[in-house]
Design goal:
The structure holds 2 protein chains of 2 kinds.
Chain A lengths: L4 E3 L2 E4 L5 E6 L6 E8 L3 E9 L2 E4 L8 E7 L2 E6 L8 E8 L15 E2 L3 E5 L1
Parallel strand pairs in A: 2-11
Antiparallel strand pairs in A: 1-3, 3-8, 4-5, 4-9, 5-6, 7-8, 9-10, 9-11
Chain B lengths: L2 E5 L2 E5 L4 E8 L5 E7 L6 E6 L5 E4 L2 E5 L3 E6 L8 E8 L5 E3 L3 E6 L1
The chains are: A mainly beta, B mainly beta.
Amino acid sequence: DAGVIQSPRHEVTEMGQEVTLRCKPISGHNSLFWYRQTMMRGLELLIYFNNNVPIDDSGMPEDRFSAKMPNASFSTLKIQPSEPRDSAVYFCASSFRQGLAGGPGGQETQYFGPGTRLLVL
Amino acid sequence: EDQVTQSPEALRLQEGESSSLNCSYTVSGLRGLFWYRQDPGKGPEFLFTLYSAGEEKEKERLKATLTKKESFLHITAPKPEDSATYLCAVQTGRRALTFGSGTRLQVQP
C-alpha cells in the first residue's frame, strides 16, 4: 500500500499567489481530513470529507481557503490569495469509517501523509 | 470544548531508562484516544487506539493505557531510535481528531 500521497512536498510562493495542495487517500478509505501544523498551534483540523462530501469545515480559517474532493481518490486544498501567516505544514489524512452513523461504532484510524511544507514570502 | 494536554513538553532519557508520557483530556463522548509518533519532517505515524477505560495496548517497547481522564504511554528500556515527538489525540462524535501539543522525546546512547 502506497499510503496517503501528498504533493508537492515543499512549496515556496510569494504573498498574493494562489497555492494548490493535492492529496491522494489510501485506496478504499471513505473519509479524508486536511490538517495544518504550526509551532504555535500544533495540529489543527481544517476540513474533512466523508464519501467525497464536506462534513465539517469549521476549521477553515477564512474564505481564502477552499477544499474540494471531486472523487474518492483525489482532494485539493487551495489558498487564494496566500499570506505569510499561512506558512505551515499541511497534512492530509484518510480513514475508513466502520459502524453505523451516530452509533457506538464509527471507530476508525486516520493515516497521515508526509505533508506539504508551505512557505509564503 | 475538547481539550488535550500532554506532559512533559520534552523528555531526555538515557538508553534503557524507562519512563512514561502523560496525556490528560477533557471531552464529552470519547470515541477513541490515539497515540501517534512523529519524526522530523514526516507525518504522524499511527501507534495505538484505546477505546475504553482500563484498556491497554503494547507494541515492542511501548505500552499505552487509558483511564477516564488520562492516558499514559510507557516506554520500557528505550533506544535512540525511539527519539521522536509523541502525539496524543482524542476523537469524539465530531470525528476529527483533537491533538495535544506533543512530547518531544530524546533518547541518548
